[in-house]
Amino acid sequence: MSELEPVGQTWEIKRYNLGRMQKYQPPSRDMRRNPPAVKPEELPDTTIRRIFQDSDLKTNPDYNLLVSLLMTYQRAGDIKRWDDYRGKIPGPLLELFGDILVECRRNGFVNPKSDGIRIAFQQVISTTEITGDLCTLCDKFCTRREQLDNGEIKKIRNLNKNNPNWKEPKPCWEKNNESS
């Protein structure tokens, strides 16, 4: 029986065929990303600035308190229950945070996270090429929202696609802005 040689001293290590080996290809930069489910009217940072009525959020004490409260909530791990935790947030700040969540959701941003410095949201993306309008994720109750949910608006669009005089009903937030 022949004596075993250490792997590093054999000829086989030096004889593998480089032509047959697969070459590493880095991921391409131009990979297509799925479009957002909703074309946002404004980004979350803009929404937060508008609701807090402050252009510099780093110096806003309410914003900093909200960032730290979200960070504390995230650190709770598996035992976190939002209904129990929200009692720790002061009433006026909870209302502002609720307004931020509603507006960000309407624009397609959900799941706020805090890194200790700022609040970041995740964007809802579409699995198809079709993107929705701002009514897609809106929580407000209006007739247009109801028509979208039951598919009636799609039927109306198809019936009136050749009618040049037909106009799609305006979203509830545009109606409210005109009456002001």
Give a written overview of the molecule:
- The protein is mainly α.
- It folds into two domains: 33-134, no CATH class; 140-180, no CATH class.
- The chain is built from seven helices and two strands; from the N terminus they run ααααββααα.
- The protein has a two-stranded antiparallel sheet.
- Helix 1 (44-52) runs antiparallel to helix 4.
- It is extended, with a radius of gyration of 27 Å.
- The model has no long low-confidence stretch (mean pLDDT 77).
Features:
two-stranded antiparallel ribbon, 2 strands, 6% strand, 180 residues, mainly alpha
The overall pLDDT average reads 77
Biggest β-sheet: strands ordered side by side in the sheet = 1-2
- Broad structural category: mainly alpha
How far do the termini sit from each other? 97 Å
Q: Would you list the SSEs in sequence order as H and E?
A: HHHHEEHHH
Number of helices: 7
What overall geometry do the principal axes of the alpha carbons give? extended
What's the structural domain tally? 2
Low-confidence stretches: none
- Number of E strands: 2
How helical, in percent, are the residues? Answer: 25-40%
Rg (CA only) = 27 Å
Compact description:
The protein is mainly alpha-helical and 180 residues long. It is built from seven helices and two strands; from the N terminus they run H-H-H-H-E-E-H-H-H.
Topology:
Elements: H1 44-52, H2 61-75, H3 82-85, H4 91-106, E1 109-114, E2 119-123, H5 143-150, H6 152-159, H7 172-179
Antiparallel strand pairs: 1-2
Helix pairs in contact: 1-4
